[in-house]
Each structure stands twice: as C-alpha cells, then as structure tokens.
Amino acid sequence: MKTIKAFAAKTANAPLVPFEITRRDAGPNDIQIKIDYCGICHSDLHQVADDWGGSIYPMVPGHEIIGRIVNVGKKVKKFKIGDSVGVGCFVDSCRKCVSCKQGLQQYCTEGFVGTYNSYEKDRVTVTYGGYSSEIVVDQNYVLKIPKNLNMAGAAPLLCAGITTYSPLCHWKIKKGKKVGVIGLGGLGHMGIKLARKMGAEVSLFTTSESKAKDAKRLGARRVILSKDKNQMDAFKNEFDLILDTVSGPHDLNPYITTLKRDGTLVLLGLPEKNPEIEAFNLVLGRRSVAGSLIGGIRETQEMLNFCGKHKITSDVEVIKPDKINQAYERLKLSDVKYRFVIDLRDRL
Amino acid sequence: MKTIKAFAAKTANAPLVPFEITRRDAGPNDIQIKIDYCGICHSDLHQVADDWGGSIYPMVPGHEIIGRIVNVGKKVKKFKIGDSVGVGCFVDSCRKCVSCKQGLQQYCTEGFVGTYNSYEKDRVTVTYGGYSSEIVVDQNYVLKIPKNLNMAGAAPLLCAGITTYSPLCHWKIKKGKKVGVIGLGGLGHMGIKLARKMGAEVSLFTTSESKAKDAKRLGARRVILSKDKNQMDAFKNEFDLILDTVSGPHDLNPYITTLKRDGTLVLLGLPEKNPEIEAFNLVLGRRSVAGSLIGGIRETQEMLNFCGKHKITSDVEVIKPDKINQAYERLKLSDVKYRFVIDLRDRL
C-alpha cells in the first residue's frame, strides 16, 4: 500500500480539500500511473453532491485521467514504463457476462467498478478517482493515448469523447448522414467534432444564439434555435440521429419530430425529469428514443486512435488543483469552453 | 359511378346504419372487388367516435377487407377476375417520396390515403371502407390472399397481422430471439402467432391470469402477470423485443427493464396518455422505445405469403352486418376472441 496525495469531498456538497488516500501496490496485472491531467466531468458535481444517491465519502472524483506509466506488473505485456495512458469511467467489471465478453463492459450485468465513488470487486475497497497524483489500474482497463495529441485536451476524451463516439458508431454515422446535437457543453462540443470527422452533416440545437459562431468553428453546419418554433418546424424529418447531451428539463417531442423516418434520439445524460413522449411521433415515423452509456474498452481505444488520426481533442481550460472548487462553481453555470482539466503534474 | 350498399356512422358515436355510397367506376389501373369479409379494428371505434379528431361523416369504417375481383382495368396485369384479394389500411399514397419509393407507403411524407375517413389524392373525394359490398382500389394497393387460408380469418391480417409482422421483421426476430407481447387482443394474439412461427420464444404480459391458457395455445411459452412485481423482476434483461399492443394507460418502465441490452419496446398503438420514460433504464442498457405503423404493400404481401405458408389466420368471431353495433359495444369491453369479422357475402 502506498499513500497518495489527492483532493476529496469529505461530505455531500463540501468543497474539495487536500486529502491523503492509499492505493494498492501494483500486482502482476496492474499498471501504476502518475497522473498528469484529469478532466472535470459534470457527473463529478452530481456525485459530490450525492444527487443520484449512494455517494461514498470521502470521495476523490475524476474519471478523465491522463498520465504516464511508472511501473508495470510482471504479466503486463502491451504497456511499458513511460507510455502515455488514460483511464476512463471504470477500472474493472465482472469479465464474465455477455456484455463484458463482447467488450461492452459499460453494460456489465453485475455493474462495472467505477473509477471513483464505487467499490472494487471485493465489495469493500472504495475506489478513488483522478484528482490525485497516482492511480493503479488493471491492464485490461487502461487505454493508450496517441502521442501526437495534446495530453490536457485528450483527458476529456475518456468520458465526453467516448460518450458521444459510441452512439455515433452504434447508429452507423458516416458520410451522407445528418446528426443533430442538443446542447453545446463538454459532451456537445465533442459530439460535433466527432460526428463531423465521421463525415456527417452536423447541426447544433441550442437555446442561446451566442453559441452559433463557436458551434460552426467546431464543425456544425447549422445552428437551430430550439426555442424558435419556426426554425424547429423547418427541420422536420431531417435527422438520422440526435445526440441529447442536456440534463436540464426540456421537452423531447419537438426534437423527435426533426428525426427522419427510422431516426433515433439518444439520451446521453440523465435528465433531471423523466421525459414524456408523444407516442404519435414515434409510431408515425418508426422513430426511437434510446439511451447510451459511455463505451467499452475496445471502443474507447478505437475512439482514441480515431482522435489521434484526425487530431481531435477537447477544447479545455487547464487549471491548477487549487482552483477545483472555483471550477465547480463555474461549471454549474456552464461557464467553461468546454471542459476544465486539472493539471496535476506538480504532484499536488 | 356506382351506388353501393354500406354501413355508416352519420355522426360521432352514432350507431352504424345502412347507407348508400357511390364508388368510382374502375379506371385502367383499378380493381373492382366484391367484399366478402371485413374485420372490425379497434381503430374503427376510435374514428367513429372522433377520438383522434378530424373524423369525416358519414363514415363507412373498415380496413381489413377480403373479397374477390369482379372487374379489372385495362392496365391491370397481375390480377384477374375471380382472384381472392385483400385491402388494408390505405388505398393510395404520393408514390414519389423516399418512403413510397422504398415500399414503405405507410410512412408517406404526404400522408397515405386511408381506406376510409380520408380523402383521395384529389383532396375532395371521401374514402369509404370495407363495411360495404364493393370497393374499387388501384392495383398497386391490392394484396393477393393465399388460397389455402380461411378467408374470414385472413381479414384481420390486413391490419392486426401486418402491424405485428412489420416490427418483428424490422427488428430481425428469428430463432434464438425472445419476444414479449403486452396485451392479448386483436394485435396481441397475432403478435404471438407470428413471432412464434418466426422461431422466437414468446412471452405474454397480461394483467389477467385467465388469459394464460389461451396465450399458450396461441404459441406463448410464458405468461407474465404484469401486476406482480416479483414476476416482472424475474424477467429483467430478458427480451430482445417487446410489442406493446395496449392503448389503455400503463406504465412502460417496468416493461423496459425486462429488455435486454440493446432491446426495443415498440409501441403499436397510440396510448391514451403519453408515456413517461425513466431515462435511466434506457441509458444503462442502450435500450430503445420506438413506434411502428402497420406496414408497406410489399411487406404486407410478404406477410400474407408467410401466413399462407404457415397456415396462420386470426382467431375470429364472424358476425352478420346487423350485429355491428353490438360488436362495437363488446369490443369496448374486450369481449371477443380475438377479432370480429363481418360476413358481407349476402351483399347487405
């Protein structure tokens, strides 16, 4: 066991403070990683605040982790000391269920082991996330980061990137397809970049006109003001796929009518209020409302390789650890373009 | 123009009474059909009652039509006098939009011409349905009925049959797949028969234990009492596809949790109340809630051929036209196994 410096919330909604945790020594299959960067995901705020219930304190958040390998276990073959690597939303899973065997560990029927605010498979050891100087992770749950990417900008790929990449692949987005993205935040801006590089024509749905310019810079061809009924009506039967990245309350039905026949609106977040669906709009166009959760390890590596090839990273604002609490307050106001990333290279 | 005997509702909710209508003479592409049987679909009741708004009176309902050809236009090649044929929910469409060109006329972007309670493409001539002695339909919207089928039992295939067959095909149901059917009525009993013959393992969700025996006779392997939380919990993550045939108010969420990862619950009717969906259940299993509307002409013919091959018809109670109003009252109470079919062979 080793003592590690970290930042933790000691109770629900408490500010994050410096805190010492212990990490296991690297076993034969483990990789020990010095953490350089960790993104701040909106779900960090929800979990720190216990919005979803069951939060475990003290909590060290962070599941968009980038670092370098400082030690590898005896059985580790595909990684070596010095490699740039990433860790995403989970660090283990049952490895036996159908989903795990298919590489879709995010849907593990026993529930994956979350990178933080979770228990290891022993059901006793609490997991601590990336707001810390080091982490030890089984080699099967570690990702390689293409060397040409900016490492701070690569951190959010581990959650915001894969959360948008996975549904774009699953619903077969490619050239000739039209994709709508609801909301321009951490997820939304990655959705635009990735869908565009896959060849799709991308439109942003937003409530604020001020985002139009930036959306176009990111790759959106059109910006549709969702409050404007005329604009929404003009895009009826338009989209093959809509990625809904907004968790605040919003009526899904006007968006559903902008789907083509056989189109799908995918929920990527958990809306605060359960959506009410007009069945009529589904039945009359064989449309679907679906959900999608991050992505599996294989697909996450594929996404990282895709981002390396196309030089895609997240737009980030890099902060020092002493600004975490301030970043949380700003994130609550959506005051960031488009992801905070903590620079942990000073080893706290 | 020709005068035809029919049964019509003269105003919303009025009892159906004998009524004379006019039909066009058969043009070069038309087929003139003497009607032998017409099913009573639950949507007939809704439209007679103007539940969905916009009903046109007098209204001659009926879109599950079986008859024999008595005349064909000069350009009709694939049909001849004496053939047993069927007419389903629509008798024309724009023929130009993407859906029409793909044979998915039910999703015609201009809206199909309904077999009744609709206007022909001239937007003036009202369409009258199958509660009548004859009908004239363009050859492209007429179906061939396999000769080995019982003709009264075949009538409901034109709506209840294709409404369940189409989603089973679209979502690729075959041997090894598990299908749930919610509700044992006109649609539900066809869903069980068709899914079973496609090789699926079929379960019925029902609120009434008394339906268990009949469901098993129809091909269901299991009957799940949806009111019983323990039974519902025992089938979590079980189904590839659920056909929801119930339009009365019911909470979709317990059913959604019985879907496997990537499973889909398809709404086939229009629930009286818009369903509220727990996003959580979609996101955590990449599940979908979708809708599906009848089927296109090509697929309807394919379904009829499938039914011919496997000797599938609807379980029907055949009535004379003077019992239509009584049948409506009984159908409101779900007092029929499983479809009323009007015997129109006496030519009213």
What does this structure look like?
Two copies of one chain form a homodimer. Chain A contains eleven helices and 17 strands. In chain A, strand 16 (about 315-320), helix 11 and strand 17 (about 340-345) form a beta-alpha-beta unit. The first copy, chain A, folds into two domains: about 1-160 and about 315-345, Medium-chain alcohol dehydrogenases, catalytic domain (Quinone Oxidoreductase, Chain A, domain 1, Alpha-Beta Complex); about 160-290, NAD(P)-binding Rossmann-like Domain (Rossmann fold), CATH 3.40.50.720. The radius of gyration of chain A is 20 Å and the shape is globular. In chain A, helix 4 (about 160-170) packs across helix 5 and helix 4 (about 160-170) packs across helix 10. The model of chain A has no long low-confidence stretch (mean pLDDT about 95). In chain A, strands 3, 4, 5, 8, 9, 16 and 17 form a seven-stranded mixed beta sheet that branches. In chain A, strands 12-11-10-13-14-15 form a six-stranded parallel beta sheet. The first copy, chain A, has helices at about 40-50, 100, 150-155, 160-170, 185-195, 210-220, 230-235, 255, 280-285, 295-310, 325-330, and strands spanning about 1-10, 15-25, 30-40, 65-70, 85, 90, 115, 135-140, 145, 180, 200-205, 220-225, 240-245, 260-265, 290, 315-320, 340-345. Chain A has about 350 residues and is of the alpha/beta class. The interface of A and B includes residues 269, 275 and 288 of A. Strand 15 of chain A pairs antiparallel with strand 15 of chain B.
